[in-house]
Design a protein that fits this description.
Blueprint lengths: L10 E5 L27 H13 L4 E5 L9 H9 L6 E6 L4 H11 L3 E5 L5 H8 L4 H14 L3 E6 L5 H9 L7 E5 L15 H11 L4 E3 L9 E4 L7 E4 L12 E4 L4 E3 L7 E3 H5 L5 H17 L19 H4 L2
Parallel strand pairs: 1-2, 1-10, 2-3, 3-4, 4-5, 5-6, 6-9
Antiparallel strand pairs: 7-8, 8-9, 10-11, 11-12
The structure holds S-adenosylmethionine and iron/sulfur cluster.
Length: 325
């Protein structure tokens, strides 16, 4: 489906829960108010919304959260999505804490790839950022995923990592077929005030550390990352630079929150409430028809670009755990 600026929209991120087993300080305050479960869509409701989106051309779904692995029934949702006409890829983004124990069932359900969020490999710094321990478990999960041959990327938010932390993250791509991507902090929720580096700053540090860094023009997925290779490294290094490399012209996505609100841009509240339609008393066919119309209308009104460079213009008040990143 096309939006009013001619962009093809074929990717939907679906946040299946606002809950999480970590408390990354830029994402989710410790004492956050959680949404009552009754307001969160069931797996069947997510699948129904995805079916309507797929009828309009959404072919890639990324499951996110909160932490998607803490929600029961994730395998069922993956199965439902994988059997939906038009949906080609179902992928997941996770903090990796529960990944090892769930990996087999997720792969059996048909999961196509996984992103693991990891900002540092230093246990103490990990605890400072996430509020919990867990680095060794996340690294064990990464190795297990590689062993099983599931495509995997590491996402590291560009908090103020020191040189040695950056080196340790890059090192994960040395002997593993893993893309390590640095993501610029976005001024959403606590991200507004969190000490962070810009991706150009990270890039300068990397160039100093690795003079062999070379631009890689090959396609690595569906997203806006730019990639670089390093001689002797199996994986690549990527940059997702929402602020310093504004990629809105090529934006291909919408976001469905755990409460069934279809968001058309991270920056603004614009969108449409699909839960109201999903929970109406209408017959199933009419629900599908109305979902399709509502999604189409929301996409037609998708904003041209985000406004992160002027944080005061951001109208989105939700925290990132509720939006799904
Ligand atoms: N819990 C899962 C995880 O951490 O991958 C999925 C949800 S999390 C909200 C998705 C991604 O958003 C993570 O990579 C996280 O680091 C990122 N994120 C959270 N807040 C952010 C912010 N303010 N700016 C940029 N990325 C952010
Ligand atoms: Fe949880 Fe992911 Fe947010 Fe961290 S970034 S608090 S792991 S939802």
């Amino acid at each position: 489906m096309k939006d009013s600026f001619g962009r093809t929209i074929d990717y939907m991120r679906v946040s299946i829960t606002d809950r999480c087993n970590l408390r990354c300080r830029y994402c989710m305050p410790e004492d956050i108010d959680l949404v009552p479960m009754s307001q969160i869509l069931s797996m069947e409701e997510f699948a129904q919304a995805a079916k309507a989106a797929a009828a309009l051309g959404i072919c890639h779904i990324k499951l996110t959260g909160g932490e998607p692995l803490i929600r029961k029934g994730l395998d069922l949702l993956i199965r439902l999505l994988k059997s939906t006409p038009g949906i080609e890829k179902v992928t997941l983004t996770t903090n990796g804490i529960l990944l090892r124990e769930k990996l087999e069932s997720l792969m059996e359900a048909g999961l196509d790839a996984v992103n693991i969020s990891l900002d540092t490999t230093d246990p103490e710094k990990y605890r400072q950022i996430t509020g919990r321990d867990g680095v060794s478990e996340v690294l064990a999960a990464l190795d297990q995923v590689c062993k099983k041959g599931l495509p995997v990327k590491i996402n590291a938010v560009s908090v103020r990592q020191e040189k040695r932390d950056i080196q340790a993250l890059v090192n994960l791509a040395k002997d593993r077929p893993v893309d390590v991507r640095f993501i610029e902090m976005m001024p959403i929720g606590n991200g507004k005030d969190f000490p962070a580096m810009s991706n150009p700053e990270i890039f300068e540090i990397l160039k100093g550390l690795y003079p062999g860094l070379k631009e890689d023009k090959s396609q690595h997925g569906f997203g806006p990352a730019s990639y670089y290779t390093l001689p002797g490294y199996e994986g690549s290094i990527g940059f997702i630079s929402a602020i310093h490399g504004k990629f809105c012209k090529g934006c291909n996505r919408v976001r469905l929150t755990s409460q069934g609100y279809l968001k058309t841009c991270l920056c603004y509240e614009n969108g449409t409430d699909l839960r109201r339609i999903l929970r109406s008393d209408l017959p199933e066919e009419e629900i599908q028809r109305q979902l399709i119309l509502a999604i189409q209308d929301a996409v037609e009104h998708k904003p041209r670009e985000h406004c992160f460079e002027s944080a005061e213009a951001v109208t989105e008040a939700a925290t990132m755990n509720a939006i799904g990143g």
